[in-house]
Write a sequence for this structure.
């Protein structure tokens, strides 16, 4: 067990196995222990303190509903722009490139923010003097708006460089998992993916076979609403992006919620890429 130079990622250290060459933090080690043959477990457990093998986790509170009329108006305007603005085709072409139909986008309240929409009278972020141009993704819980994220699309220096991430929440909006309840039955199987747009895409093909959660990022944490859905669902399938961050997220969530099952796509990094590569997502689901 080593003191890691990456203290943010591995605050209590990381490990490296000289025999199988596995490496990582406590979540990875906990997963290996859970899947290892019994003869190896006692020796490994004697080597590490319990606090390392079982990292503490917590469930975040669900953010409060957004009541600010300015934010609600941004959502309404963006939803109208998706079908009526002069530049709506930019957003619709982007959606088609992700396999999402306009009907599906409207069903889930997606919108489009055009160029030069000012923040005023909103409180602007220090480094972001205007609303980002792109696809608006509202996050609802219990029918109330809780957060607003934008997938920047214009690709200019004010949207996709430095502090300007491709996906970002508007000022004062929390980062939170995105929930799609396609089936009102509480024990419906649950499918967890990284991106909100991937959750929407899979719901388009899978319908009420599942309920869906888009984490928003690989580093997302569970909140009380997500934890309740996981607890109620008879099966919970975790489909990570096919990269290191995606599998690290699976390890972390599996440690917190042992009932999770890992799923992998036959092609592509994520459901959008799999669809473009010819995977029949409906049959796969």
């Amino acid at each position: 067990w080593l003191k890691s130079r990456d203290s943010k990622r591995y605050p209590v250290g990381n490990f490296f196995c000289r025999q199988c060459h596995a490496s990582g933090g406590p979540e990875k080690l906990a997963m290996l222990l859970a899947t290892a043959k019994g003869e190896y477990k006692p020796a490994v457990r004697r080597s590490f303190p319990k606090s390392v093998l079982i990292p503490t986790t917590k469930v975040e509170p669900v953010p409060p509903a957004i009541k600010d009329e300015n934010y609600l108006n941004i959502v309404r305007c963006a939803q109208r722009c998706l079908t009526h603005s002069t530049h709506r085709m930019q957003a619709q072409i982007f959606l088609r490139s992700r396999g999402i139909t306009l009907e599906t986008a409207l069903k889930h309240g997606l919108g489009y923010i055009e160029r030069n929409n000012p923040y005023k009278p909103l409180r602007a972020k220090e480094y972001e003097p205007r609303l980002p141009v792109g696809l608006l993704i509202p996050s609802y819980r219990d029918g109330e708006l809780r957060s607003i994220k934008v997938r920047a699309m214009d690709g200019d220096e004010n949207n996709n460089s430095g502090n300007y991430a491709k996906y970002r929440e508007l000022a004062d909006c929390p980062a939170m998992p995105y929930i799609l309840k396609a089936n009102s039955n509480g024990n419906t199987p649950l499918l967890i993916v990284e991106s909100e747009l991937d959750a929407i895409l899979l719901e388009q093909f899978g319908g009420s076979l599942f309920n869906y959660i888009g984490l928003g990022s690989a580093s997302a944490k569970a909140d009380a609403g997500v934890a309740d859905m996981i607890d109620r669902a008879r099966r919970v399938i975790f489909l990570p992006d096919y990269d290191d961050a995606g599998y690290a997220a699976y390890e972390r969530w599996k440690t917190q919620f042992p009932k999770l099952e890992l799923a992998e796509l036959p092609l592509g990094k994520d459901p959008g890429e799999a669809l473009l590569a010819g995977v029949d997502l409906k049959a796969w689901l």
